[in-house]
Amino acid sequence: MQYAQEIWAKTLEIMERELGMSRTCIDTWFVDIKALSFSDNCLTLLIKNDFMRGYVESQYSKWITDALRLLFSMEIRLRVVDKEEEVQEVSKRQFDEEYSFERFVVGNSNTFAHAAAKAVAQAPATSYNPLLIYGGSGLGKTHLLNAIAGTIEKNNPSAKIIYVKGDDFTNEFIESIQARTADEFRNKYRAADLLLVDDIQFIAGRERTQEEFFHTFNALYEAKKQIVLTSDRLPKEMVNLEERLRTRFEWGLMVDIQPPDYETRMAIINLKCKRLGLELSTKQKETIANNVTSNVRQIEGTIKKIYAYSELLQTDTTQDIVERAIKDMFQEHPGLNPTPEIIIKEVAKYYQIEETVLIGKNQSKGTVLPRQVAMYLIREIIHSSYPDIGKMFSGRDHTTVIHADNKIKEMIKTNHEFKNEIKDIRNNILES
Ligand code: ADP
Ligand code: MG
Predict the structure, then answer these.
(1) How far apart are CA 305 and CA 298, in angstroms?
(2) Which fold has domain 2-83?
(3) What is the pTM assigned to this prediction?
(4) In CATH, what number does 97-257 get?
(5) Dist. CA 405 → ligand 1 center (Å)
(6) Cα-based torsion angle of the residue sequence 192, 194, 198, 204 in order, rounded to the nearest 10 degrees
(7) In the CATH scheme, what architecture does the domain 340-430 have?
(8) Is the distance from the beta carbon of residue 110 to the nearest atom of ligand 1 less than 6 Å?
(9) What is the domain partition of the chain in residue ranges?
(10) Cβ of 201 less than 6 Å from ligand 1
(11) CA–CA gap between residue 130 and residue 385 (Å, rounded)
C-alpha cells in the first residue's frame, strides 16, 4: 500500500510538472484518490464516489497512464475500483537501500562478484544461472544478494522474489512436513521469479532438504527463473553435498570475494564514515585500515564503536578512541585474535577430547592427530615459533612440531574431507 501510494504521489507530480495539468484540477479530482496496490505492472486506484470514478476514468485515464509511462519507461495499466476489499497489496519494497549496488565499494577483491551480480540484476536468467558468490564471512555476499534483489524489485515490482537463508529453508521445510503443508512450501518456492539462497552450504548433509531443493532448482531453472546462491566455500568443498546438486551449482557462474586490499578498505572506511556523519582524520582512517584487515563487517563494527564512543564522551574523535575501539572490537570476539589457549580449546572440543589430554603425553591414535592439528593451527594462525609451540604441548621437541605441521599440510592437500574439517575448526575458533 505504501509503495502504491508513493507511486501515485509521483504520478501526480509528473502530471503537474511534465504534462502541465493545473494544480486546481489535481486538487479537484485527484487528491482524494487512494492507491491500493501496484503489481503485475498495474496500478490500482480506489475511488469510492461513483460520479468521480466515472469522470476520472473517462477524462483522465490517459493522463495517468502517460505519467506512469514516463515514470517507469514502460506501459503500466490502470485499474480503478470502488471497494477497498477488492484488491490487496502484493508487492512492497522489502530490500534495504543500505545493501544496494550504490553503497557497495568495488575493489580488486570483489570486482568479478560485483560485475556478475550487476549483470544478473539487470538481465535476470539470461546470462549466468545460477550465480554462486562464495567467500569468507563479512565480505559482502549478503550485501550483493540484497542489491540484486533490490534492483530487480525496482525494475519489476511485480516479480516474485524470494530471499531465504540456507538454514531457514531447511527449517521451514522440516516444519512444513510436520505441519503437513509441504505442498504449500513447494508451491511457494516454485512460483518464484527470483530465488536467492544465502549461505546455501547449510543445506548440505540434510537429505530430504537437498532432495526438495533439487526439485525446486530444476523447476525454476527450466522455467528460466534466476537463481542466486551464496556460500562460504566452493561446491566441491561442501562435504555431504549431493553430487547432483553440486553439478547444478556449478552450471552457471561461480565468483569469489576476497578480503579487501588496503585501498578498498580505505574506500569502505570513507563510505561508512560518511553514512554515519563521522569525521575522522586520515591518520585515524589509516589506523583502522592497518589493523582491521580481513573482514568488512569488522571494519563497520569498529567505525560504529568509534562513533558511539565519541558520542558518549561528547568529544571529537581522538586517536585514543580509535585505538580503543579497535581493541574492544577484537576483544568482544576473542576468536578474531585467537590465543593458543583458544585454539587448543576449540580443537579439543571438535575432537571431543579433554584439553589436558590434547596437550599431554598420551600417544594413542585418537589424540595424536588432533594434537597435530592444534600445532598446525597455532602455527598457521598465530605464527608462533616451532620451539614455542613445542613448549605448549608438554615440552615437546621442535622437530615434533615441524613434523606435525608438514603432515597436516600434506593431508589438507590430498584429503578433501579433512581440509573441510580444518576449515570448520577454523570457523569455530573465529566465532568463539
Ligand atoms: P557476508 O554475507 O559475506 O558475510 P555481508 O554482506 O553481510 O557479508 O557484509 C558485512 C557488512 O559489510 C555489511 O554491513 C555490508 O554492507 C558491509 N560490506 C561488505 N562488503 C562491502 C563493500 N564492498 N562495500 C560496502 N560495504 C560492504
Ligand atoms: Mg551473509
Answers:
(1) 10
(2) GMP Synthetase; Chain A, domain 3 (3.30.300)
(3) 0.65
(4) 3.40.50.300
(5) 33
(6) 60
(7) Orthogonal Bundle (1.10)
(8) yes
(9) 2-83, 97-257, 262-333, 340-430
(10) no
(11) 45
Q: Is the Cβ atom of 306 under 6 angstroms away from ligand 1?
A: no
Cell triple for 292: 582491521
Give me ligand 1 centre to Cα 417, in Å. 29
Same fold: 2-83 with 262-333: no
284: Cα separation from own chain's centroid = 28
Q: Which ligand is nearest to the CA of 300?
A: 1
Q: In the structure grid, which three cell numbers stand for residue 228, read together? A: 542466486
C-alpha grid cell for residue 213? 531443493
Could you tell me if the CB of 297 is within 6 A of ligand 1? yes
Q: Which atom of ligand 1 is nearest to the CA of 135?
A: 3
Cell numbers that stand for 342 in this block? 583458544
430 lines ligand 1 (CB under 6 A): no
- Pair type for strands 77-81 and 42-46: parallel
User: What's domain 262-333's architecture?
Assistant: Orthogonal Bundle (1.10)
Atom 7 of ligand 1: nearest residue by CA position: 142
pLDDT tens for the chain, 432 residues: list them. 567 888 899 999 999 988 888 888 888 888 889 998 888 778 999 998 888 888 898 889 999 999 998 888 778 889 998 887 544 444 455 788 889 999 999 999 999 999 999 999 999 999 899 999 999 889 999 999 999 999 999 999 899 999 999 989 999 999 999 999 999 999 999 999 999 999 999 898 889 999 999 999 999 999 999 999 999 999 988 878 999 999 999 999 999 999 999 999 999 999 999 999 999 999 999 999 999 988 999 999 999 999 988 887 888 899 999 999 998 888 876 666 678 899 999 999 999 999 999 999 999 989 999 999 999 999 888 778 888 899 999 999 999 999 999 999 999 999 989 998 998 898 888 777
DSSP 141-161: HHHHHHHHHHHHHHH-TT--E
How many angstroms separate the first and last alpha carbons of the chain? 44
Ligand 1 neighbourhood includes 137 CB (under 6 angstroms): yes
